[in-house]
Write a structure and sequence with these properties.
mainly alpha, 2 domains, 66% helix, flat
Length: 93
């Protein structure tokens, strides 16, 4: 059975995503060693607008929903009933 472009992309997606995370990690860790992030009990004025907690929660969690909905139809196991059975509870929760 010949490999398709989707197979190649599927097998390389995780290592590429992990590499990007390794690249941006120092950009997050280093500033947080010097600054106290104004979040939760540390919030203070002067760091931008204050947003309602439900909206912040929605914005923080939304990439898992929309990234899944964008990427799933292009994956090789999209039409597999087991894949749909496993991902459906996550999407509907």
């Amino acid at each position: 059975m010949a490999a398709t472009p989707e197979d190649s992309f599927d097998s390389s997606l995780y290592p590429r995503a992990l590499f990007v995370l390794y690249l941006i990690c120092p950009l997050t860790v280093l500033p947080l060693q010097l600054l106290q992030a104004p979040y939760g009990k540390h919030s203070r004025h002067g760091w931008g607008p204050s947003l309602p907690p439900p909206l912040v929660w929605f914005l923080m969690e939304s990439p898992t929903l929309w990234l899944t909905l964008i990427m799933l139809p292009h994956r090789r196991h999209f039409h597999n009933p087991q894949t749909l059975a496993l991902i459906s509870p996550f999407l509907f929760h």
